[in-house]
Amino acid sequence: MIKAVSILGSTGSIGRQSIAAAKHLGVPVVALTANKKIDSVEQQARELKPKFVAIFDENAANDLKIRLADTDIRVGSGMQGLIEAATLSEADCVVTAVSGSVGLRPTLAAISEKKRIALANKETLVCAGEIVMPAAKAVGAEIVPVDSEHSAIFQCLMGRQPGELKKILLTGSGGPFRGKSRAELENVTPEQAVKHPNWSMGAKISVDSATMMNKGLEFIEAMHLFGVTPDDIRVVVHPQSIVHSMVELVDGTVIAQLGVPDMGLPIQLAMTYPERKASPFAHLDFYAMKDMTFEAPDYEKTPCLKLAMDCARRGGTAPCIMSAANEVAVAMFLNHRLGYNRIYDCALQAVESIEIVNKPDLEAVLAADEQARVFVREHFS
């Protein structure tokens, strides 16, 4: 089990649950980072007494430094602050729970220091999986997924030999609008989109779940995490969110990981792996379960999922462009500046309009990310 942890994105849903898991396990939290929610970070810092806290927003960081002047906690800022938190010598594990491509550089920095990466930041692999996974392999850094689906696949493949896997069966609930047509979703509000039927998540990931872009991002992640092709992954809609994902082996055996829909479980496993520890979470009650159903996705009703799968096959910077455009579009939607169905339009037009670079280096990935953001702001504001 890990000895100490840095949590990047400590004020978000995954960050808060990571703190809870660390406290339950008795693992010290030695670094925290956030964007600019200094009230929440100050409270966390005073409770946990980390060595270092970083706030991405420079002005907010200065305010926090004043607030914590009566403590021994160092306060950093900007990208350099995130990188310092990710590479702090006391931590042997880094939870990457920041949202967006801002998590890419700190993750690579943590990998270079051979930290275990408890990966909750989708964009790291969506945008730069071809860079991140080889970097981790080169130094022997562990990447343990925190997403419930990827954690499930990770668990199903424990002890399996190379060549035994035939297909990954990536499950998804279908979100709150499962089965509804685009016409029916024309006037969806942010308040409706963030109400997931099973999971408690942050606003951005809740909207992505509603559009099923989230499942598309997970599709791309799974390719990189488990070294498979798009043809090796099948998306399965499972509304009850009991089976978190499955793997089919070459002999026809299917192995599934089941559990209650609680992100605390994969977060704790990422900290205890390869061990398992008792947890405070509810256990699955089979007697209380009524149904478990499975169905194929309807790509006409979930075009974001189809677009993501197409970008996975296209490769290069296509997934990065799509992801960045989607991130900006979702933010605009949450601020009531963009219609729900236009989220897909933003991502599609960005992918069709911006030149895709094959086999990009880090700078090309970051450039594509910025181009996509500028494109959406200029064409859809």
Q: Could you give a short description of this structure?
A:
By secondary structure, the chain is of the alpha/beta class. The chain has helices at residues 13-25, 38-48, 58-67, 78-87, 104-112, 122-139, 148-156, 190-193, 203-211, 213-226, 264-272, 303-314, 318-334, 342-353, 362-380, and strands at 5-8, 29-34, 52-55, 74-77, 93-96, 116-119, 143-145, 165-172, 233-237, 243-249, 254-258.
Describe the structure.
46% of the residues lie in helices and 14% in strands. The protein contains 15 helices and eleven strands. The protein has helices spanning 13-25, 38-48, 58-67, 78-87, 104-112, 122-139, 148-156, 190-193, 203-211, 213-226, 264-272, 303-314, 318-334, 342-353, 362-380, and strands at 5-8, 29-34, 52-55, 74-77, 93-96, 116-119, 143-145, 165-172, 233-237, 243-249, 254-258. The strands form two sheets. A seven-stranded parallel β-sheet has the order 4-3-2-1-5-6-7, with helices on both faces. Strands 9-8-10-11 form a four-stranded mixed β-sheet, covered by helices on one side. α1 (13-25) links the parallel β1 and β2. α6 (122-139) runs antiparallel to α13 (318-334), α12 (303-314) packs antiparallel against α13 and α14 (342-353) crosses α15 (362-380). The longest helix is centred in the C-terminal third of the chain and has 19 residues, at 362-380. 49% of the residues are buried.
